[in-house]
Specification:
The protein has 180 residues and is α+β, with helices and mostly antiparallel strands. It contains 5 helices and 8 strands, in the order E-E-H-H-E-E-E-H-E-H-E-E-H. The radius of gyration is 15 Å and the shape is globular.
Length: 180
């Protein structure tokens, strides 16, 4: 699937844990990626983590491209089986999501919002997706603002083993309304 914006074309492809590990390692260990919680990961740690995701029927990693060049990481998961089990009541059609924009020394105003919009369009391209569910760290104010901008509504704080998170939900209708 492609999303064409005034910032260019965004596409996603399945992540190849063997070929993409070095690229991902640079992204997830960068200081700007602190909320990804892999700051001290070694190359083999990143490879192992994404090999596990590749083997998991309930969790998928995708590499996002901007005009054909790697620019972001996207993960989608089934919250009834991963990440949020026992922390909220999943509904049919719920899809969990994480995204990470590649760190850059020359940020482009509006780029991250274009990425999250492309991620959401990709998720909602599946007619079975009714809601997207996210659980960012409560301290990640920048992502809370981005989530609100594309239609997420806060459901409340939840306690995960690794963080206190702000559970937020976005329906297809709320996304369409926010991005029209």
């Amino acid at each position: 699937m492609s999303t064409v914006t005034d910032m260019g074309t965004f596409t996603v492809r399945p992540l190849d844990p063997l070929k993409d590990t070095e690229l991902l390692h640079g992204w997830v260990t960068h200081p700007k990626s602190a909320f990804w919680m892999m700051q001290d990961a070694k190359l083999e740690d990143v490879e192992r983590a994404y090999m596990e995701i590749a083997a998991d029927e309930h969790h998928h990693a995708l590499l996002g491209l901007h005009d054909g060049e790697p620019a972001f990481l996207m993960e989608k998961y089934d919250p009834a089986h991963r990440e949020l089990v026992g922390l909220y009541e999943p509904e049919p059609g719920d899809v969990g999501m994480h995204f990470l924009v590649a760190p850059t020394g020359t940020p482009i105003h509006g780029f991250t919002r274009a990425v999250i919009t492309a991620v959401m369009e990709t998720l909602f391209a599946d007619p079975a997706t009714r809601r997207v569910v996210v659980e960012p760290d409560v301290g990640n104010k920048a992502v809370h603002a981005l989530n609100a901008a594309v239609g997420f509504e806060v459901a409340g704080e939840i306690t995960k083993p690794e963080k206190t998170a702000l559970l937020s939900v976005c329906t297809r209708a709320a996304f369409e309304e926010a991005t029209r």
